[in-house]
Each structure stands twice: as C-alpha cells, then as structure tokens.
C-alpha cells in the first residue's frame, strides 16, 4: 500500500466561500462518518487534525528571508484539513477523496502520493 495525503482546501473565490454555521453543523456528521469509514478499512494512517486558521509564510524577498503572518497572503484558498491515508494507487486514493462530504460546500480535495525518502 502507498500513502497519500488528502488536503482539503476552502476556496475563497467561490460564490459561497464560507459555509454557514448550520451548514458546518450539517456537514460534521457525514465528515466524521467518512473518516470513520476510511479508518474501518484500515486505510487511515494518521487521525485527522484541525489546523489553526492563522499561520506564517516564509519566503525570499529581495535576497532576504521574510516571515509573514497568515499563511494565505497570496492565495485564494486555505487548508481546512489534512488526512494521511493508505491506498493501492492514485485511482483508489482519488475514489476515497471523492467521498469527502465537504466538497458539496465548495471545498476542494487535493490528492498527493508520498514519495519515500531516498
């Protein structure tokens, strides 16, 4: 089995970038059930964590490193969740990711395969 990172993004450019509190409440049970189903198949590598909406960005500006508050300074998306899963290939990982119920609220799920260190 290979490991894949599922990155759940919120799209700030969509017509409804922030789900309402009622939508969030409505989405929690299906989201927990989705993660539970992945775990029940022994395909969840790490339990998902919640991530702070704040953060820092480190980048090179005019030959000098700068640390900027807020990780979303130059992007129109934020990371809403990260899951590490096991799957036999990209197709299976994508199929698992497609089950994320948050997608219907405008989220985007990115799938990336872990490459073992050489």
Task: Supply database-style keywords.
Alpha-Beta Plaits; 118 residues; two-stranded antiparallel sheet; four-stranded antiparallel β-sheet; 39% strand; alpha+beta; 25% helix
Layout of strands and helices, then pairs:
Layout: E1 2-11, H1 21-40, E2 44-49, E3 56-61, E4 64-69, E5 77-87, H2 90-98, E6 107-113
Antiparallel strand pairs: 1-5, 1-6, 2-5, 3-4
How would you portray this structure in words?
- This protein has 118 residues and is an alpha+beta fold.
- The relative contact order is 0.34.
- The protein contains two helices and six strands.
- The radius of gyration is 16 Å and the shape is flat.
- The protein has a single domain (2-113), classed as Dimeric alpha+beta barrel (Alpha-Beta Plaits, 2-Layer Sandwich), CATH 3.30.70.
- It has helices at 21-40, 90-98, and strands spanning 2-11, 44-49, 56-61, 64-69, 77-87, 107-113.
- The mean pLDDT is 80.
- The strands form two sheets. Strands 2-5-1-6 form a four-stranded antiparallel sheet, covered by helices on one side.
Low-pLDDT windows of residues: none
Strand content: 35-45%
CATH-level-4 superfamily name = Dimeric alpha+beta barrel
Helix content: 10-25%
Look at the helices and sheets and give the structural class: alpha+beta
Mind summarizing the main beta sheet?
4 strands, antiparallel
Radius of gyration (Å): 16 Å
> How many structural domains?
1
CATH architecture: 2-Layer Sandwich
Number of helices: 2
Q: State the shape.
A: flat
Sequence of secondary-structure elements:
EHEEEEHE
Describe what is shown at a glance:
With 118 residues, this protein is an alpha+beta fold.
